[in-house]
Amino acid sequence: MTTPARNRHHSPATEEDLDSLPEHVLGQIIRGELIVHPRPGAPHTEAASTLGALLVPPFQHGSRGPGGWVILDEPGIRFGGDLLVPDLAGWRRERFASPEKGPYVVTPDWVCELLSPSSVRDDRVRKLPIYARHGVGHAWILDPDLRTFEVLRLHRGAWLIVGLHESADRVRAEPFEAIELDLTLLWGEAPAGQRPPAADTISEPAAEYNPGG
Length: 213
Fold this sequence. Notes:
This protein has 213 residues and is an alpha+beta fold. The protein has a single domain (40-209), classed as tt1808, chain A (Alpha-Beta Complex). The chain has 4 helices and 14 strands. The chain has helices at 15-19, 42-59, 120-133, 184-187; strands spanning 3-4, 25-30, 33-38, 69-73, 77-79, 82-84, 88-92, 110-114, 138-143, 148-155, 158-166, 170-171, 181-182, 207-209. A 7-stranded mixed beta sheet has the order 4-7-8-9-10-11-14, with helices on both faces. A 3-stranded antiparallel beta sheet has the order 1-3-2. The protein starts with a strand and ends with a strand.
């Protein structure tokens, strides 16, 4: 479960608090609290690594794709007083700036969160509103246990669900719709050539999603 390392009666958490954490946990600062989660398990780690491997060649290196992006794994990003660590984040190359030290400060254009039992509440209820407030244009939410994939787009300050997918679907998901993603690769299932075509996925019309309740 989420472990708040400080409560609201203490001074706000700092980057020094994050630096002092042991390597087997992941820390973030949300609303002044140091929030600590255990490192995710194998399904989460494998799905995140596979997704990054699928996106980086076409979108960061321009290999059989449009290029024009910088995609990073678990970057620490400052959003005002919050310091969040999405599982993956991407910036359009013309907006990207690498800090000399400390966290990234330019708001990414896309984030991806992979849910785990210890993080699902923070990822959905606490982090998504922060991403929206700071203008992250696109968010993906993957659940490796349920094998679901949600595509969100920011519209007038609120998240719209523009794609709901599962299990063996083949997906073209914005902002990376230039390539098709075979979701079975994320779950470690049989490759596409060894299974029947996937059923249709849900896409339009977009539904408004307010993660803050």
